[in-house]
Amino acid sequence: MLTPQEICQLMPHEGAMCLIETLLHWDEEHLVCSTGTHVSIENPLRHHDRLSIIHAAEYGAQVMALHGGLLAKQSGKSPVAGFLVSLRGVKFYRQRLDDTEFPLQITARKLLADGGNLLYAFDLTLNHIPVAEGSAAVMAHREI
Predict the structure, then answer these.
(1) Do 54 and 93 contact (CB within 8 A), yes or no?
(2) Domain boundary assignment for the chain
(3) Burial of 7 (0-12, 13-18, 19+ CB in 10 A)
(4) Which of 30, 12, 42 lies closest to 111 in space, CA to CA?
(5) Which of 8, 97, 115, 143 is the most exposed place for a label (fewest CB within 10 A)?
(6) What's the pLDDT tens digit per position in 81-138?
């Protein structure tokens, strides 16, 4: 089990912007994480005391980054930061992320890896109820 600090070291995020707290499961193709940062008043994405559903994409992207960091660590390499270059087929099933007491569960599944180009599907749930889903293309950039 990784601590939240160890999780952040595998991603290009620091401090309060590191939104993922718990790694529940991972393998070569996917991972599942959970967090309570969506209800934190310290969440840097909050605007007017609310966390919009649009930020579900950031949670998905951070889980993808964590997956890349875990794969790099497993192979003895340094994690590589990437650019989110597109979001596709994104669906939101509520208006806000912060109006619940349940932990947010985020899943990412690698669909394609071609050199530094990656395509992932992601989904977010609260108490097993869908919150958001979509896919994201990422282009690798540099070592973290």
Answers:
(1) no
(2) 4-143
(3) buried
(4) 30
(5) 115
(6) 788 999 999 999 999 999 998 999 999 999 998 878 899 999 999 999 999 999 999 9
CA nearest to 55, candidates 67, 66, 65, 43 = 43
Residue type (1 letter), 61 = A
Burial class (CB in 10 A: 0-12, 13-18, 19+), 131: buried
DSSP code at position 103 = P
3-state SS class at 41: coil
Contact 30, 110 (CB under 8 A): yes
- Identify the helix (H) or strand (E) that includes residue 107: strand 104-114
CATH number of the domain located at residue range(s) 4-143 in this protein: 3.10.129.10
User: Which of 115, 64, 71 lies closest to 87, judged by CA?
Assistant: 64
Secondary structure of residue 99 in the 3-state scheme = coil
- Pick 40 or 115 by higher pLDDT: 40
Nearest one of 27, 61, 56, 54 to 137, comparing CA atoms? 61
